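Continuing from the previous page...

OK, I double-checked the sequence for AAA family ATPase against my notes and this is the correct one:
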Amino acid sequence: MRRDLLEREPELAELRDAAGEAVSGRGRVVLLHGEAGIGKTSLVEALRADPPAGTRVLVGSCDAMSTPRTLGPLRDLALDVGPRLRDALRGGDREDVYAALQDELADAPGTILVVEDVHWADEATLDVLRFLARRIDALPAALVLTYRNELDRNHPLNRLLGDLGPRERVERLALQRLSPAAVGALTAGSGLDARRVFAMTEGNPYFVSELVASADEVSVPPTVVDAVTGRLRRLDAATQEHVEQLAVVPSAVDADLLARLVPGSAGALRAAEEGGLLAVSPDGVRFRHELTRRAVVDSLPASRRIELEQRALEALVASGVADPARLVHHALAAGDVGAIVEWAPRAARDAAASGAHRQAAAHYRVALEHAGRYDAATLADLTEQYAIEAYTVGAAHSAMLAQTDAVAQRRALGDARRLGASLRWLSRFQWFDGLRAPAEASAQEASAVLVDAGDEGLYAMALSNESQLALLAHDTRRAIELASRAIAIARETGDAGVLSHALNNHGTALMFLADDAGMAELLEAADVALAVDDIEDAARASVNLVWGLLDQYRLDLAEVHLERAIEITERAEFIGFVSYQQMEQARLHLARARWDDALAVIDPLPGPPHARCVALTVQGTVRLRRGDEGADEVLDEARRLAEHLGELQRRGPVAVARAEAALLRGDAAAARAIARPEYEEAASRDAASLRAELGDVLRRAGDADIEVPEHEGFPAAVQARGDWRRAAELWREAGAPYHEAAALAESPDEADLLDALAILDRIGAVPLARRVRADLRERGVRSIPRGPSNLTRQNPEGLTDRQVGVLRLLAEGLTNAEIAERLVVSVRTVDSHVAAVLAKLGVQSRQDAVRAARELGLLTA
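Thanks. Re-ran it with the corrected sequence; updated structure tokens here:
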């Protein structure tokens, strides 16, 4: 065992086991994490130096750059992979990279793909890693990710780790600090006091090695920076300058760049290599540790660093480097505005093409800090491109503000075509930011500007945008009329993007009218969009289809299409649609009376106003139906937000929940006052599903002045007409137990009331169960079940009843798939529960969770 691998035998064995399983065709993900300097890279180097027979080790590194390189660690592999993957990485197309990388690993059994320092990865790289990890079971490869575990809550890596955490073929290796005995072994023969070294370093291997390498018997450097710079200053002046020059490059320096930065590098760097600062190979040079490089950089005076950064920038440009993000990094550090202005837009476009939308937005922001250096037309384009990227990653307010500027710039330029297109985008961003009236004004102006601009495609898109706003306001007839005009133009011009967008609106409007032809149009809209790689409109079509099915309580069909929708959006960064899909998942759980599941999906509450309104409505309804505290307060917050948004699709569901609350407390008059205005608007706008739900609430509140159209397949419509028995059957077929029990509770038959009570006790619906018991007592029924003694019991660790149930199944040794089958839920839902259990118990693995649960007594009956 090497001296720098003391107390690392189990972790190295685990890596070698993963490599061995890859040879046999069983893929695995290994998450190797710990603090800076803990020895992650040393473990990887040990594996690469002595890989198991029949394996190959590919290593790519993420760099500590101002804005990460797009697909940087994968592009590092270009010389070691086949031509298809090499070409795909050069082109940067997301789907090409996915397919080529999957084939590369499938065709070379026993590949260990290591991505180091994933905490510095760009979004496109994180997406590729997520894609691979979800398919690792079927690949003869091991995916090893190293990262520092000091991540803040909003770090992009946390989402990937959350996705991977509970999966069965995922192992977490947490590297610990060295023991005093190991520190003693490392300091042996140095003349240093091992106890003092341990106290100074607290057992961090890198800190220990630096102190040992830098100190003499007389003195010990007080900090690692002092240790590194002390070693550096022992070198001759020319070598010191070379090391400082290399230190400003936050990645391995290839042979070509090295020759430009350090003439005669083979001999010039020998002393630095022998001194343990650098690792030199025929391919180039790198620092032995990132902390060493950072220590050198941090010791540089500002003027010296600017000089070195400028020299690195010029060398990279001269070498013909194809990665603009690297150039932007050095240009920013050197303060070279001319280079920033030239390269930041290119880096942004490169990132956007690969799906790294966060990085694209960052590069556009950098470019716009020098707005005065661009001509007016270019500035308008850059401003709008930034707004689109901000919208893509869910920053609706930033997108709206930037697009407002872009529209002002377009007005000054006087190009009607471009102005109209920009107004259409502004309308979309304003709606996402919760600004309904400005969105409508921008949409109408866009159509007016484009009607005679000579671009039928843009005009059709403006019409479709107006249709979309009408749809969102439940102005269904107008939405259909505008969408029909857009569809006709799109089919005539062959514009797939416009066709998908307009079919989306038309199909959703038909679903509002309970016309199943809308389903076919939404499926066509998604297919048309996917055919031209328009992920946004494909995602929107899927979201709208699921939403319509949930409105109609066609829950099984909604779940099928929700799985497809999630698959589409998870391959891109349309964060707004991810939030909507989470809300749909929450609505699905709510309809099935899976209270804990519904609350888990919306925790924490989303920020975007439309999604937040839905989340508050779900949260308030769960609290209401379970009898938890705070239901009225949550629903009141939802009401205020819905009124601010000004759309029936938000106000209506909140009114249903608030009216239901009034009925549960016996205040029929309040229920009528809440539901009547929204019912009348739903009736005037042909909002079939919402009209049925509001009508049912009004009927139960004693309001006979309702008229609900015949929709035999809609349980709420049947119940609104007073046919509680048929409604109960339909609710049971739909898989909505709370609604089934509520329908049975209207029966004059005591047997039906007892059936309703059994359902309500089973799902923990305390308030309605209490009312049914009271009704049974009034009828003189003597044998009334008492029900559970504590329906909302929580254990000391804060696990929900469902999570405790999952934990017990984990203790039985069941896999997530087996747990899903036992509980009749999706594997994705089980993944979420297992992740929540691990987090609440503060453990890293399923085995540790079971062990902790036994110690806490959570597995006892």
